[in-house]
Amino acid sequence: MNVTDPQQDPSCPAPDEEHLSTLAMAASNLEAQQWAVDRAEQVLTDLVQSAVSDGLETGSIAAVAGLTTEEVERISAEGSAPTP
Fold this sequence. Notes:
The protein has about 80 residues and is an all-alpha fold.
């Protein structure tokens, strides 16, 4: 039986390299997901503001968007994204 030692075989990445690669991939995935969340919050904010401007009832907007009426009012007044 022949056991390959990753320290001596350049085709096998070292354990530290594997961990760093996994860490880099996780960080990259997190950044991409955070960007998507930020974009979704901005779209929701824009749509809530548009609905308020069009005269839709705050309670109806809140129910459909999964927000409280206070959050809808804050978004309408400040133009800020909702906080979970």
